[in-house]
Amino acid sequence: MNALPGLIIIVAIMAVAYYFLFSRKKLVAEQKASDDISNVGAGDRVLTKGGLLGDVKHVEDDVLLVEVGQGVVVRVLRSYVDSVVSKATDLAAAA
């Protein structure tokens, strides 16, 4: 019976450690991805939730014009962008 308070303290410490080691990293990564999507601009390469990969040509509020092939431009809602694959500045630096 005397070991119960010690066990509760150990479990509480493990729960706090789990939060800081795993959950916090995931939250930070999700926040960065959300920021990338909200700051997408012309020249960025994006991947849509439907699997289209293309370059953003123009941004209008919540609608992006994405070129998915030579001369093929589609309208994509910002909410349907899954991730920003590369920023325009990254593409320019690689060239």
What does this protein structure show overall?
With 95 residues, the protein is α+β, with helices and mostly antiparallel strands. It has one domain (4-94): SH3 type barrels (Roll). It is 44% helix and 33% strand. The chain contains 2 helices and 5 strands; from the N terminus they run αβββββα. The longest helix has 35 residues, at 4-38. The model has no long low-confidence stretch (mean pLDDT 87).
CA gyration radius, whole angstroms: 21 Å
Low-confidence stretches: none
CATH class: Mainly Beta
In CATH terms, what is the architecture? Answer: Roll
Query: How many domain modules?
Result: 1
Average residue pLDDT:
87
* Shape estimate: rod-shaped
| Number of helical regions | 2
Q: Roughly how much helix do the residues carry, as a percent range?
A: 40-55%
Summarize this structure briefly.
Helix content is 44%, strand content 33%.
Fold blueprint:
Layout: H1 4-38, E1 45-48, E2 53-60, E3 63-69, E4 72-77, E5 81-86, H2 88-94
Antiparallel strand pairs: 1-2, 1-5, 2-3, 3-4
Keywords:
alpha+beta, rod-shaped, 5 strands, five-stranded antiparallel sheet, 2 helices, SH3 type barrels, 95 residues
